[in-house]
Design goal:
The chain is an alpha+beta fold and about 375 residues long. Among the domains are: about 120 residues; about 110 residues, Double Stranded RNA Binding Domain. Helix content is about 70%, strand content about 5%. A four-stranded antiparallel sheet has the order 1-2-3-4, sandwiched between helices. The protein starts with a helix and ends with a helix.
């Protein structure tokens, strides 16, 4: 199934929209950082760094929407490979820069956590009226990072007998050293990266499924230096963004199919939307059914193209659901060329095997 220029442009548009989502995600992180920094950034340098990133992110977003190269591509009547390569390179450069900014921000967040923890511990050193339990409670409550908080809880649990003879100032100093050592470790930095990665893909079911092995490998790998760890994190960050871009057209197509098919009275169980391997491709199989027994099966490819089949109808009765469904897709911004319409209406393969797989798993529930 070759793609028309309309479909290629549609996919680029979805990638640009996805990059816009990534940019907004980064900006939300920056806004949270600014809030944290208000009380601890005495020099103001960290705030200036964040403001610089915010300006750059706005420029990147504007360039994505207004770039002349993409506009030029939208005017051609056939797929110009050289022009497509230039557009791809343009998107790759934006993706790389977003990954770099994301990593720089993650490193900044780590520094903020360290500075915030030190500031809170310094304040507690002055609280000479606190007993051990009160000091522990205030220390835990004052630390925003969950991993550092866990270290404090473990430290108090393992050293309570020894700490009971310490003054609050001495306890705060010992805990400060303990947390500082942890926050300088690869374990802490790795946990921060992983937390951010998982946050980015939390809403991307299929991206998450495809990256499980990569995230686990990153988590288990021992790095010889912080630089090696940072390089691996940047590489994984790029892969996450690229996967999200690749999935953007399919994600929109699935959302549109779900809306259109539900309008025809079909019910879709979340467990009946599955990512499966087909040759070298990952395809999504979507199975929908009416209470009266009619069924619809969809196979959605990475670039947003899909095939479908309606079953369980008498004669041509499926036309009652099929044609309105196709008409509805245009309302949900699914761009179909004439060539692709033929593919959709006359799929080359009937997905009986996929249907049987989905039904078998559904029956077991």
């Amino acid at each position: 199934m070759s793609m028309s220029v309309e479909q290629v442009m549609y996919n680029y548009q979805k990638k640009i929209e996805r990059l816009g989502i990534n940019i907004n995600f980064i900006k939300e992180n920056l806004a949270q950082l600014l809030t944290q920094l208000q009380s601890i950034d005495v020099s103001g340098l960290n705030c200036q760094e964040i403001e610089g990133y915010l300006v750059e992110l706005d420029l990147i977003h504007r360039d994505l929407l207004e770039n002349e190269l993409v506009k030029e591509f939208s005017k051609v009547s056939h797929v110009d490979l050289e022009l497509a390569k230039r557009v791809n390179f343009f998107l790759e450069q934006k993706t790389l820069r977003l990954a770099e900014i994301q990593q720089n921000i993650e490193n900044l967040k780590i520094r903020v956590v360290e500075d915030e923890t030190k500031a809170r511990l310094t304040n507690l050193q002055q609280r000479t009226n606190l007993n051990l339990e009160q000091l522990e409670q205030e220390l835990v409550a004052s630390i925003s990072d969950s991993n550092s908080k866990a270290i404090v809880l473990t430290f108090f649990k393992n050293n309570r007998t020894k700490l009971i003879n310490f003054t609050p100032a001495e306890i705060a100093e010992v805990v400060k050293t303990e947390i500082s050592n942890f926050q300088m470790s690869q374990e802490f930095v790795k946990l921060q990266y992983l937390g951010n990665f998982n946050q980015q893909i939390a809403e991307d079911k299929f991206v998450k499924a495809e990256l499980i092995a990569d995230l686990e490998q990153f988590n288990q790998q021992d790095f010889s230096s912080q630089d090696e760890l940072a390089a691996a994190a940047l590489k994984l960050q790029q892969k996450i963004i690229n996967k999200q871009l690749d999935e953007s057209a399919r994600k929109h197509a699935i959302s549109s199919i779900l809306q259109a098919i539900k309008n025809r009275g079909f019910i879709v169980d979340v467990n009946d939307i599955r990512l499966v391997k087909e040759n070298e491709d990952n395809v999504v199989i979507l199975y929908a059914k009416k209470v009266t027994g009619e069924e619809a099966i969809f196979k959605v490819y990475l670039d947003g193209r899909f095939t479908y089949k309606f079953e369980g109808y008498e004669g041509h009765a499926h036309d009652v659901d099929e044609q309105p469904f196709v008409n509805d897709l245009s309302m949900y911004d699914v761009s179909l060329s004439k060539e692709q319409n033929k593919v959709y209406l006359n799929p080359d393969k009937i997905m009986n095997q996929a249907k049987m797989t989905v039904k078998t798993k559904t029956d077991k529930k």
